[in-house]
Write a structure and sequence with these properties.
The complex is a heterotrimer, with 1 copy of chain A and 2 copies of chain B. By secondary structure, chain A is mainly alpha-helical. Chain A is built from 11 helices and 3 strands, in the order αααααααααβααββ. In chain A, strand 2 and strand 3 form a beta hairpin. Chain B is globular and about 55 Å long. Chain B contains 9 helices and 6 strands; from the N terminus they run αβααββααβααββαα. Classes of the chains: A mainly alpha, B alpha+beta.
Chain lengths: 249, 189, 189
Amino acid sequence: MDMTVRLQVFEGPLDLLLHLLEKNKVNIYDIPIVEITAQYLEYIAEMKRQDLNVVSEFLVMAATLIDIKSRMLLPAKEEDAEEEEDPRAELVQQLLEYKMYKCMAYELRDLQIDAERVLFKEPTIPPEIADYEEPVDLAELVSDVTLAKLNDIFKSIMKKQADKVDPVRSKFGKIEKEEVSLSERMSYLEEYCLTHSRFSFRNLLEAQTGKMEIIVTFLAVLELMKVGKIFISQEKTFDDIQIQSRIAA
Amino acid sequence: MENKNYEAIIEAILFTMGESVELEKIAAAIELDKKETKAIIGRMMEHYEDPAIGIRIIELDGAYQMCTKSEMYEYLIRIAKQPKKHVLTDVLLETLSIIAYKQPITRVEIEKIRGVSCDHAVNKLVEYNLVCELGRLDAPGRPLLFGTTEEFLRSFGVQSIDELPVLNPVQVEEFKQEVEAEINLKMDI
Amino acid sequence: MENKNYEAIIEAILFTMGESVELEKIAAAIELDKKETKAIIGRMMEHYEDPAIGIRIIELDGAYQMCTKSEMYEYLIRIAKQPKKHVLTDVLLETLSIIAYKQPITRVEIEKIRGVSCDHAVNKLVEYNLVCELGRLDAPGRPLLFGTTEEFLRSFGVQSIDELPVLNPVQVEEFKQEVEAEINLKMDI
């Protein structure tokens, strides 16, 4: 699908936006926000099908566009229409700045092409001179750096590390395809209920192999309870929970 | 010792070292002050522009380096090997141009301009020695500050970052006027 | 093209090659025959004897090489002798502290902690003999492991790395967080 190829060209939301403006041959200062928003959303809807990770960066811009669109659709009050800033102003500024650097990037590329035609020379230091080596004076180099300072530096780096890491989210690991689905678990439980009119919640969980299975099974129990397909009871706090099937065999 | 021989010494130094040599070091070697040394090198640079000479001296942020003239390239490449160069993708170039014009700059500021995260690009540029850390910003989290290197100047053939092509002053002005006319916007670029 | 520009090309070739280049190759590059080329180089050699020029061309067995005149040696030594400005920058200090406390450690691990390439910093620290290679990690790619040197201990006045100011508070905190996170995940039904 040619969409795939085209989508990968965009370096980011601003890049995509600039592309849309150029494609529509519209002025950057007078963005037809309604059309552009629609087109932008179309693109990211297509993207979503490809790679959710990439899309996240584009979604913020989508929200901004929609916000601008809604603000522009609102009728401006007569009296303050003059002073009121165009809702697009900030976006225009951002687009302009981005476009400027994109433009400078091309200039840099030209400079680089010229500069590549210049060759340098490896040092050819005669051995008599090369053999002479000024030793690094470590005492002077280290001079006022103390161990305590080194320790402080290390601590602040490690602290920065810890700050960076969201203690909860960092443990989530990669988002993987859910291996046990809730609906799957539910139908499994329903089937089980057909043959077992009463069973232990603890035994049920113990029969599960992984953490994910336990969690999903637990959710399935809650769900079936809600729809009234099972009934649960517990004698005392911390006692085993008994599950009763309400599904007729 | 007359001036002429200073030139010979500087020539020998720049030739031998191959790499860039700071003005300070050259001045110390020839036992002249920096100003005098700079003047001599300036004269040499002019003299080297003679088309009968195939090499030239370039200035890089207060250091000097000898290199071939670009007109010689087509002949040179028949014998000499082109040093391995890094291919700069659009992302890398965009990031590099932001760093070049806005240095010192943090990752977050770059991301704000590009609208996308830039970790990978910045790391690659550091790896290619086009960008380096300039220290940390005195702000919460003490983020790293980045700037361009001497290798950047060399690779793009500019003497110093002040010599980078100007951010199209004409265009900026045009933009501003248009905008002011159209939506009464205050531009701050 | 007149003679003069042949000289410029030959100059650029000999300069950038640094080593000796065979007459044949030079002739091929400038598209002249060997005899003519040799004549041009001969004239250049003469011209280079001018004391205002610091380099010369020497002939070695049918090949030519550009080199500095020996009269220039004393100045070259002065350049070499000039103590390089060695400074432990923030980047170096941060990298050093990570290596000191986390040794043996690979480049990749250092980069992970600092969030930016560290090749340059590690190389500098190795050059300063504060850090050395400790071998290779038994992992894919067999990356180099780095640690601090005896010089490091001497410079900081400690007997062994065990004497480094305790990092336990930091580590303990790390472990605590890990354990807590672990516990939070345990299902407690």
